[in-house]
Amino acid sequence: MMPLRAEQTRRALLCAGLLALALIARPSLAHADDPPPPPSPSPVERTKQWQKLSPEERERLHQRWQQFQSLPPQRKEELRQRATEFRKLPPEERARVRQNFDRWQKLSPEDKARVREKFQRFQQLPPDQKQKIRERLKREDPGKGKGPRPP
Question: What are the structural domain ranges in the chain?
């Protein structure tokens, strides 16, 4: 098992990579039956967006891109598929995923460990029990019970 800090860093980078991929994924990654992606910004617009970023943000994105490039091809494809799935979500659902990610980032290491433990226990439940829990969560809070898949 990875030390907690390394695991948190790995998960945070993978989540951030997923969001970055969702923003830069190419149309060629979509399947024939997928809705057309939104138009990509022109190279000039992308350059302007890049120039507006702080040096720290540029460095952070550059490091994440290098990390992505160093992944095995199978892992890259998995992240591309998740990015495609993310792009297919309605805007409200994408906003909810981003909010959940932000909430996760703000949790203490202890709280994250508790959430991971609960998630692992949930994964071990039979499908009918999982469904009952999801239905109960939907009744209590319609936004719950549909959380994003962990990396």
Answer: 1-88, 91-151
